[in-house]
Amino acid sequence: MQCGKILALGLAMVLMTCGMAAQASRAEDTIRYRKAVMVMIKWNYEQLSQQAKGSTPFSREEAQRQASWLDALSKSVLEGFPVGSHDGDTKALPAIWSQWPQFKTLTQRMQSDVTKLQELAQKGDVIALKAALNELTRTCKACHDDFKKS
Fold first, then answer.
1. Where are the alpha helices (DSSP H) in 80-125?
2. With the CA atoms of 147, 143, 108 and 137 taken in that order, what torsion angle do they form, in degrees rounded to the nearest 10?
3. What are residue 130's DSSP bridge partners?
């Protein structure tokens, strides 16, 4: 009888440990996901910015492609910040979750800024595109200032 209780307790501890390990693994996967999204956002932003600044020749096709990537990625940002994903190898501040409405508003502003970029990339208006990139930069900076460790 005593052996059965010990075995049951041991099994419960093993299952609990496995559950915690799986939960930690999901949090790590989430952090990797959001880091990947941010790296891809940065890459496409920089490519588009170089064209708008004249550092590389402007190509409407390339600008449209980068703006399309930014659009898709901007819509993926919130998925990378589920509750409970603040611990681990991340620069995300806990303020994201305690101030979720403000974080979500900045994310929606970023999406709106990117929609404008897409329209301007399609038109090929480099001057307006540069101004829109500056607005996107301000939006990103506002979010990073409030919600990212430096």
1. 95-98, 100-123
2. -160
3. none
- Name the pTM for this structure: 0.82
Say how far apart CA 113 and CA 64 lie, in whole Å: 14
pLDDT one-digit tens code per residue, 54-95:
999 999 999 999 999 999 999 999 999 999 898 899 999 999
Domain count of the chain?
1
Residues in the chain: 150
Angstrom distance (rounded) from CA 24 to CA 36: 18
Provide the CATH number for the domain around residue 105: 1.20.120.10
Distance CA 126, CA 119 (A): 11
Helix (H) or strand (E) holding 44: helix 2-53
**By C-alpha distance, which of 55, 69, 77 is closest to 114?**
69
